[in-house]
Amino acid sequence: MKQPSYHRVQPTVPPPPSGCPIDHDFSPFSATYVSDPYADLAPRREQTPVFYSKKLGFAVVTRMQDIVEVFLNPETYSSENVQDPVFPLAQEAQDILAAPDFNPVAVMSNRSEPDHGRIRQFTKGGFSNRRMRILEPYIRSRSHELVEDMTADNTSADFVESFAIPLPGDTIFRFIGFPEQDDDQLRSWCGDRLSFSWGNPTPKEQAEIAAKMLAYWRYCRDFTANKAKDPGDDYASELLAAHHDNPDLLSYREVESIIYGLSFAGHEPVTLLLTNILLCLLPRREAWNTICDKPDKIPGAIEEVIRFESPQIGWRRVTTQETTLGGIDLPQGTRIFLSLGAANHQPGEFPQPEVFDIERPNARNNISFGKGNHYCLGAKMARFEAKVAMEVLTERLPTLRLEPGQKLDRIANISFRGPTSLHVSWDSEPTCLPDHGKQA
Ligand code: HEM
Question: Which residue in 10, 14, 304, 421 has a CA-CA distance of 20 to 30 Å to 157?
């Protein structure tokens, strides 16, 4: 049986659903949205909670109750479009991706039931509490090393480049089993992938990125083949063993595709989470000092960042049948943009949603990791990695602060949010010397 491909190409944009209010201005690529998506969507959430964005070609869903309804009804709202390019691809890019060996298949985020559940039974074991505890010494000692490198001869740095990019990349790449010498190449492909599936590249850029996606996939295939010959103590080898023992339940192509998918999912959003944590906490000195003095407050602070300034503020679905959502009739094939960010700032769900409060009792009710059968497989890993990183940063650099007057640049895209650089500084005296080497 032919399996659904990982990235499908939409030939055309479907017409707007009749009866759905049409918004001619809203676009996640607009400067207004990129600068403050919550303010951009707040009046729309109150007046037209489900509306059709003419510029995006999607029905936009902004209220928590409607988003939860979508997530909990996968037979009506399919996730098969979550890895597709947002806009139809230019012919040149399509020609590149028509290479006969560009054949990743949909595996988790973009695969429908019952196959999704069949595959997830083999992938979830790697993300248990026990596995996180095994990972902890690595994350902790790597965090200390990165702080040491960052502070060696300096009292200021770009936090994104020095810490927020390397830590999640190193963690997920070692977890999967990629060799260290390929880290830079893999990181660069992850950035390309963000533009490919969630951005709005020009036709020329699309062709360039398509060539890189082909190279990225070929790399994952070669890597999997080498692991099959020479297994190690890593997640890729575990998946291959699961395929070996259950060839009818987990195919070899699915293993290759899981590796292709996880290398992005485990890296990019965690980089943005670490960056957004500092972006939220450093200017709010009282909150920062609280977590420096009381590390047990770190998980609550992280959860509030995941609500207030989530690294993932939008996700997609497509209707498989005619349905009604928030009182709006939607025909089969309606593409849906779920504004997780708007729901995370909904006043009825979170009192005074524009106040950042590390003690907020229900911050964990945020919808940033989704809900239901596709609930983020890596949520535990992301929270855990951020907790360990913040324990190290607050212990080593309590005087950390944002460099004043910096302009924050963000890559316009429909799903991910966080600045591309964040300049920080600190007092030169070393604060404390860790004994982390013993834990490594
Ligand atoms: C703060 C960081 C992260 C955020 C905000 C985030 C968010 C999300 C969201 C919104 C979904 C889609 C849920 C749905 O469609 O219902 C998702 C799915 C997924 N995420 Fe994450 N994620 C993060 C980190 C990670 C990490 C670290 C990994 C892996 C190491 C990961 C792996 C996945 C996978 C495999 C899926 C698909 C699960 C499925 O369909 O069964 N994510 N994530």
Answer: 304
Contact 329, 19 (CB under 8 A): yes
Give the domain extent around 331: 22-439
- The whole-number average pLDDT for the span 324-350 is 97
Residue count of the chain: 440
Q: Is residue 3 part of a domain?
A: no
Sign of CA dihedral 155, 301, 345, 194: positive
Q: What is the pLDDT of residue 438?
A: 38
Containing 289, the helix (H) or strand (E) segment is helix 285-293
Do the domain assignments include residue 35? yes
Question: What is the number of other CB atoms lying within 10 angstroms of the CB of residue 363?
Answer: 22
Q: How far is the CA of 375 from the centre of ligand 1 (A)?
A: 7
Domain contains 112: yes
Residue 33 has pLDDT above 60, yes or no: yes
Q: How far is CA 256 from the centre of its chain?
A: 20
Q: Whose CA is nearest to atom 40 of ligand 1?
A: 109
Tell me how crowded residue 222 is: count the other CB atoms within 10 A of its CB: 11
Residue at 369 is within a domain: yes
- pTM attached to this predicted model: 0.95
Which protein residue's CA is at the shortest distance from atom 30 of ligand 1?
266
Q: Give the chain's domain count.
A: 1
Report whether pLDDT(240) > 50. Answer: yes
**Distance from the alpha carbon of residue 114 to the mean position of ligand 1, in angstroms:** 19
Mutate to test the pocket of ligand 1, among 82, 366, 369, 388 (most ligand atoms within 8 A of CB): 369
Give residue 399 CA to ligand 1 midpoint distance, Å.
32
User: What is the CATH classification number for the domain harbouring 394?
Assistant: 1.10.630.10
Each residue's pLDDT tens digit, 100-148: 999 999 999 999 999 999 999 999 988 888 888 889 999 999 999 999 9
Please state, rounded to an integer, the average pLDDT across all residues of the chain. Answer: 94
